[in-house]
Amino acid sequence: MIVAGRAFFTTFFAPGRPPDASPRRRQVRYHPGVLIALNKPCGVLCQFTDRQGRPTLANYVPVPDVYPAGRLDTDSEGLLLLTDDGRLQRQITDPRHKWPKVYWVQVERIPRDAALDRLRRGVVLGDGLTRPAEATLIDPPVLWERTPPIRTRLNVPTAWLRLVIREGRNRQVRRMTAAVGHATLRLVRVAIGPHELAGLAPGEWREVDQARAG
Question: Going by DSSP bridges, is the β-strand pair 184-192/77-83 parallel, antiparallel, or unpaired?
Answer without folding.
Answer: parallel
